Amino acid sequence: MTVLxxxxxxxxxxxxxxxxxxGVFRELNRLKDIQVILVGITREGHWYRQxxxxxxxxxxxxxxxxxxxxxxxxxxVVPGRGIAPVRGKPFALDCVFPVLHGTYGExxxxxxxxxxxxxxxxxxxxxxxAVGMDKLRAKQLWERNDLPVIPYIAVRQDREDETDQLIRxxxxxxxxxxxxxxxSSVGISRxxxxxxxxxxxxxxxxxxxxxxxxxxxxxREIETSxxxxxxxxxxxxxxxxxxxxxxDYDAKYTDPxxxxxxxxxxxxxxxxxxxxxxxxxxxxxxDGAGLARVDCFLHTVxxxxxxxxxxxxxxxxxxxxxxxxxxxxGMTYGELLRELLNLAMERASAGAERDFHAR
Length: 359
Known about the structure:
By secondary structure, the chain is α+β, with helices and mostly antiparallel strands. It has helices at residues 14-30, 52-62, 109-117, 126-133, 135-144, 163-170, 197-205, 249-253, 269-285, 321-328, 333-358; strands spanning 2-8, 35-41, 47-49, 75-78, 82-85, 95-99, 152-156, 175-179, 189-191, 210-215, 219-228, 233-234, 238-242, 259-262, 290-299, 305-311. The two termini are 29 Å apart.
């Protein structure tokens, strides 16, 4: 099998993608029946094929890939034919593995491009990716499917001045203020009272024009890995115990002591299975496919479970939460990658069969 590994991208999570892709690349290289073609996407949206030997060295020594924009290695998408050098024949590809976090990678846009190009790809389709990235739409779908979500209000820039009163009328302080469509905790603030609200809103509105304000209940942060298509399986949940005020960007990526990850989480068996069932239903409700990490809150006083968000392309280094939870369920990192490729091909085959019958 020839796999195109896409990394980088135009989002604020560009660097996170480089680290995730390094783990995926090194493991795929160990699978003898898989050939990997590496293509990096710059912040400006240009695509370049990468030298696999150099990238293997970067991955081994630095724990990340380093995108090299060599003009003679530029590639383009050829609708109906795949990926090709600017001057040359298309590559023979079987599947695309997009390790692209955030905007233009996890939001349905790259998935739509790959659909047009006729290329099978790992992960959710256009709808599942777009809804998963749009926290407000995901919450609305979950509510319609009788799934529990943390209380929230949505705020747009033209209603910014009304936010304090809306908070007081809804659930009160403290709250979390976050951009609607962003990941890796970019633009998120915890706000204890109204004095800090304008600053937090400004910070979030620089990332997205819609902001979610959520009740900051006393909770444990519980995450679950979901794997599959129409009949997804779940794995033992893990817990994130941040050493910062909350699990912010620095705690995730820059501070080695930023958080403690407990896998599996220390939960009563019935609570663990309740969370896993809720996460599987949440995955299906947004039309997820392939994989997702579903993040929940467990109220420390009432024991209530709330859905927080879904990540359709979660962090993917060998020590990231998603693969570590899968490993706790008995599947190695290499087995996980192979299963994701199989699920991608299975989904593409089912789609091709539907198209055939439609014609």
